[in-house]
Amino acid sequence: MITTPRPRLAVWKFASCDGCQLTLLDVEDHLLDVAGVIDIAYFPEATKGKIEGRYQLSLVEGSITTAHDARRIREVREISETLVTIGACATAGGIQALRNWADVDEFLRIVYAEPSYIDTLSTSTPIEDHVPVDFQLRGCPISKHQLIEVIDAFLHMRKPNIPGHSVCVECKLRGTTCVMVAQGIPCMGPITHAGCGAICPAYDRGCYGCFGPSQAPNIDSLAAWWKQLEVTDVDLVRALRTFNAYSPEFREASEAYEH
Amino acid sequence: MSTEREIAVDYLARVEGEGAMYLKLRGDEVEDLKFKIFEPPRFFEAFLRGRRFSEAPDITARICGICPIAYQTSACNAMEQAAGVQITGGLRDLRRLIYCGEWIESHVLHVFFLHAPDFLGYDSAIAMASDFPDRVQTGLRLKKIGNRIMSVVGGREIHPINIRIGGFYRTPTKIELDGLVPELEWALEAAADTARWVAGFSFPEFERDYEFVALSHPEEYAIQQGRIASNRGLDIAVEEWSENFEESHVEWSNALHARLKTGGSYHVGPMARYALNSDRLTPRARDVAEEAGLGQVCSNPFRSIVVRVIEIVFACEEALRLIDGYERPPEPFLDVEPRQAVGFGASEAPRGLLYHRYAIDGEGAITEAHIVPPTSQNQLSIEDDLRAYVVGRTHLPDAELQWQLEQAIRSYDPCISCATHFLDLTLDRG
After folding, report:
1. For A151, which DSSP code?
2. Per-residue DSSP letters for B222-258?
3. Lowest mean pLDDT among A196-200, A213-217, B250-254
């Protein structure tokens, strides 16, 4: 039997809710298989042990919101051969990127008791604004099937099979009747990246865009649809400004429809 | 001259989020002790202002990927109270059912993956799996059934999509819920067996006279509703929180410290719930607790792992009861019309009391939000525990003392991601 050292995996956390890294523990049926083929060398949420050195695969959760973290992500990049961002915070700045539009003076008026204790930047930005990223896995939270696909693709040195089409395709695959056409429910599915399995429409709810923009989304067309459903521009902007607000496509559209 | 020693853990492992611990001893005296939280703040309370009242459940869920149902439930409770709407019958049962799923998933994660390795001397559950393969497999399967409840009722495990103010987008059919029963029946037995296992762990001799604070409900083991009660006579409605508790800001923590106005630290979480409400546990959970030798009150934080398992037994039994009695409600949700009001909501997150308060205007926009997560309430209690624990143990070698202190912190299942997210900010424009 040929034995080669198992590649080392590290999981890094920046500003986030921990949900995407929890997804790695949520792959209940495959967790021990994953641990068999890859050495979980740094994953503080799950293990006290730490193997120093270089990591073949780094999964990065969270966005950059402090000067300290802006330095730390560069160090992480240096010791990582492949760096994959997981989730909306790491790929688009997360819900905390709403601060990027905040009126700074207004924020200062609601300052806490001892603001000098807090170290923070005025923006929340995705990882790729700071270092080169090898692959971005979307979702708030990510899909565990897609996470396994990314790890498997890494192990076999192939490109992950993560389609960039919209949630609409997943509804068709699932056999869900279009909630926007049939029930008049405003749905972001036409402009949202697939990956969740089109859960919301299957629960009689419009997609709310937690996987961020699909490839080349036609947001103007969606806006026209929503107008017919009597959704105001204010509510359209609000819908674009949630968990992937600072993704370039949603950001530009939300600014265009703001006035 | 007495010697000076420092024990510092720069990044606590197997907790959710980023925290650290610092202890400075001079001889046998504790000179300085801090449970530090350096997780960067995300300012939920600030950016919730101006959002629609109906968005609060989905937005606040993102405070914590481990207990999103707790945030969604407390937010719904607050908004429904503000609108004068009360959820009853099947809709209320479904809220409780999905919450049972979250308790199972979160508690199993803590018991098997975060806490048990401390007692057995491993770095992680994955390392433990080579010597305890059956236990780790049991943990994974138990966790999965908790997650399945969340998926069936809520659409997915992390940040479920089906909860809305007034109820659900779509209620599950009876058949969908019945599909959970066989695995839950297995889980009930597996959890009872796990209780016997963890009850046999070796626990340091350590007890503190805590003020336990938890929701309490006359008819049930409180999860998603109740009054705020304590073992020292506190008994208040949720809307009276701010008259009885206060928060302060310390330099070493990005999470506010909460304390009782009448005194100091208090303790929230499974031990508090158990101390106040154990007579309302389901029958099997009561039997298993007795078999585990738990008594009426458990005041040893290291033994909280046993209490957590008792709550897993309870949550499985309660989920089975709720599914058995389930009839699909005629409507998936009640219409909730916003009005200018202040709403208060609380529920028992796996780690303890989670309090929300919102002011909304006549158009349904949020004008103020205030969120107090369990871990920020436990910070003072954690520090008090550590300070008390060190007394009489300063002779221990650094590595051993550090291991035990970390274990003590972990016994709270601290969720630092939660605790940090309600801070307002100062800006560094650099």
Report:
1. H
2. -SS--EEEETTS-EE-GGGHHHHEEEE--TTBSSPEE
3. B250-254
Angstrom distance (rounded) from CA A5 to CA B332: 53
Tens of pLDDT, residue by residue over A13-51, are 999 999 999 999 998 888 888 889 999 999 988 888 788
Q: Which helix (H) or strand (E) holds A82?
A: strand A80-86
Give residue limits of the domains in chain A. 8-155, 167-256
CATH classification (class only), A8-155: alpha beta
Both tokens of A141, joined, read: 């939270």
For residue B139, give the chain A residue with the closest CA. Answer: A28
Instruction: Select the residue from A68, A89, A118, A236 to test the B interface by mutation, using most B Cβ atoms within 10 A.
Output: A118
Distances (CA, A) of B128 to A133, B133, B365: 33, 8, 50
Q: Are A207 and A135 in contact (CB under 8 A)?
A: no
Instruction: Determine contact, residues B142/B99, Cβ cutoff 8 Å.
Output: no
Question: For chain B, what is the mean pLDDT?
Answer: 92
State the pLDDT confidence band at A110, using cuts at 50, 70 and 90.
low
**pLDDT at residue B422, as a whole number:** 44
**Which pTM value belongs to this model?**
0.95
Chain A residue with CA closest to B111: the answer is A46
Q: What pLDDT digit, counting tens, does each position of B374-401 carry? A: 988 998 999 999 999 999 898 899 888 8
pLDDT in tens, B77-105: 999 999 999 999 999 999 999 999 999 99
Question: Which chain A residue lies closest to B42 (C-alpha atoms)?
Answer: A96
> In the structure, what pLDDT confidence band is assigned to residue B312 with cuts at 50, 70 and 90?
very high
- Is B170's CB within 8 Å of A47's CB? no
How far apart (Å, rounded) are the C-alpha atoms in residues B246 and B260?
6
Bigger pLDDT: B415 or A55?
A55
Q: How far is A78 from chain B (nearest CA, A)?
A: 20
Contacts of B157 in chain A (CB under 8 A): 26
Q: Which residues of A touch B43 (CB under 8 A)?
A: 96, 99, 107
Return d(Cα B174, Cα B189) in angstroms, integer: 24
* Tokens, residue A38: 């890859």
| Predicted local distance difference test score (pLDDT) of residue A76 | 97
- Chain B hits for A104, Cβ within 8 Å: 427, 429
Q: Which of B222, B247, B229, B213 is nearest to B73 (CA)?
A: B222
A40 contact residues in B (CB cutoff 8 A): 124, 126
CB-based contact B46 A40, cutoff 8 Å: no
Using the beta-carbon criterion (under 8 Å), do A47 and B14 form an inter-chain contact?
yes
Query: Within 13 Å of residue A163, how many CA atoms lie on the same side as its CB?
Result: 11
Angle at A246 between CA A55 and CA A91, to 5 degrees: 20
B159·A108 Cβ contact <8 A: no
Separation CA A42–CA A63 (nearest Å):
19
User: Do A188 and A206 contact (CB within 8 A), yes or no?
Assistant: yes
Which CATH number is B44-420's, of 1.10.760.10, 3.40.50.300, 3.30.365.10, 1.10.645.10? 1.10.645.10
Residue A224, Cβ neighbours under 10 Å: how many? 10
In this model, does residue B33 exceed pLDDT 70? yes
Residues from chain A contacting residue B426 (CB–CB below 8 Å):
108, 111-112, 115-116, 118, 120
DSSP 3-state of A35 = helix
